[in-house]
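Before any further analysis, backbone shapes were mapped to integers, which produced the following:

***
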Amino acid sequence: MIVRWPGAIHEGRGEVVPIVDERASDKQREALLRIMGGEDTEPGATFFQVFSTTFEKVHNPVFTNLEFEVDPEARTARVNVPGWVEARGEPIRNPVTGHEHRARINLPYGFEYDVCEVGRGWGETKGPIALSMQDSHAHFSRLHMTGTGVVH
């Protein structure tokens, strides 16, 4: 998904471009769009459902090639959706020594994740939601979600 809000997320007026891997079957596409749209989920149980309540505009879904690699333990990631998204993440580095710094966030009752590693991120998006983020914030996490929320 590519998402943007003009201010704080809880103030709404957001917009989203749902993106699904072109290899998904019709049934998988439908299920993934329902998940991203916050459907089949208890209210407030997942970030998909929470964010869906803040979208003023939902653009047509994109079905295309996705390249995605993530290693939460190493705090690295790479996402490439040709013509739409190019992003990467890496560990935070100590500005003096250059050594990797490690920080975690633990949300034992969170709707986003249970535990994440914190890092740095870069990203460029194109299309109706064009964004550019340089040396920004990144989270790396393994997600296990159901319709009732994050499995803790």
Remarks:
- The chain has a mean pLDDT of 96.
- The chain has two helices and 14 strands.
- Residues 40 and 147 are 6 Å apart (CA to CA).
- The helical segments are 26-36, 47-52.
